[in-house]
Write a structure and sequence with these properties.
By secondary structure, the protein is mainly α. Helix content is about 60%, strand content about 10%. The chain has five helices and three strands. It is globular, with a radius of gyration of 17 Å.
């Protein structure tokens, strides 16, 4: 179980980028975002509601997403989130940062010794 906790800790550091990625496919609300994250990870990661809503509040405060209330025609009124152009820019930059970090970590943990 410690392994799964360590993986979750690594992922938690990238929650904002994950949320932005989900929203880059279209506007969505909290529960749908949680379902999409679980599906995309094939069940290996479940984002917790508090983490999601803290991220959405932070992203909204930074102008990376905007929230709006949907209609009540299909049950409870839901708050939807939309990624802004600034959010798309941040997502691209966060993706680049992740790729660079992953490349460095792969080199550092290379079991074959790699180029030294």
């Amino acid at each position: 179980m410690a392994s799964r906790d360590a993986e979750s800790d690594l992922i938690r550091g990238n929650v904002d980028a994950i949320v932005l990625h989900v929203l880059s496919a279209g506007d969505s609300y909290g529960y749908e975002i949680l379902k999409e994250v679980a599906a995309a990870s094939r069940g290996d990661y479940e984002m917790k509601e508090p983490s999601l809503y803290t991220s959405l509040k932070r992203l909204e405060g930074q102008g990376l997403v905007t929230g709006y209330w949907g209609s009540e025609s299909q049950g409870a009124r839901r708050k939807y989130y939309h990624i802004t152009q600034s959010g798309r820019t941040e997502l691209a930059e966060a993706t680049e940062r992740w790729v660079r970090a992953r490349t460095i970590i792969d080199r550092l943990l290379d079991q074959d010794g790699g180029a030294r």
